[in-house]
Amino acid sequence: MSFFSFGQEPEPTEATTLEPSSAVPAAAAKQLSFDGEEGRTLSVIAEPVSSAAGVLYKRHAADVTFEIAATDDMEGENLLAQVVAQTDLIPGRYEGGLKTWECSIDLIDYLSSLEPGWLRGKRVMELGSGSSLPGIYCLGQGAAVDLQDYNEEVLHLVTVPNVLINATPIPTDAPHSSGTIEMELDYATLSSLPVRFWAGDWGCLRDAMREMPEENKYDVVLTAETIYAAESHEKLLDLVMTIVKPGGVVFIAAKSMYFGCSGSLPQFLQLAQKRLGAACSIETVWVETRTVRREIVKITF
């Protein structure tokens, strides 16, 4: 089974963070290019992730860690070495993209409950995509999808492999007892998919897309677990206002509160209402209260 027929590693309720060692410039916006990589392949271990939409696949976290260990100095100051060793977030340097956060699965569950076929032909952007499973779900539903993460390394290690895993026939003859599957990915597949990849800071991406023609803007913008830092709220809103078409929608999936972090969903929504006012409607369309409260908010422009 391939495009698209989804576990995720157990996730903590809250993120652990490291303070940045020093101030660093915001990561410049960059679109990744895979032209000329038709002969490139990558061996990965994939695992299923279940949702109400069915099963998608993602690169196993241990496989990502193994690649980092094989290519980087795990004893030095390397950014990803710090991430693997001790933290979920390094403010201003790494924004959690190596993990599959639970609200991303909530978002898939909700999107799959909407009218069948509504995504076909839509232009979709997932901001802070990381594992990119909501965006991959949309890709499988016939949308053209752009996937963005702060860290280019995350796109290469997780996002791009996850797209390829789900676009490749899943071997059924030799799954491991854990449910994981060894796969060989061919980067030539990317040329046949309506998908693009963007790295960099939201403010820089907004500047890069400021002159985007109206017809190239997005019908749907998705983001999950990205409002935990209050200092990023203005950037997120500025970017969304720049790239969404009139009549477009934004879906924000988040925990209501992020203990130990500066941002919360009520705080973000208060700012959104102040900034957007009558130019949009804001409504909560999904709530989970059995554990930590999680919500999905829809903003219609």
UniProtKB/TrEMBL annotation:
Pfam families the record matches: Methyltransf_16
Major localization class: cytoplasm
Subcellular location: Cytoplasm; Nucleus
Region Disordered, annotated ranges: 1-22
Amino acid composition bias (Low complexity), ranges on this chain: 9-20
UniProt GO molecular function: protein-L-histidine N-tele-methyltransferase activity
Gene Ontology BP, a term: methylation
Full protein name: protein-histidine N-methyltransferase
Protein origin, superkingdom: Eukaryota
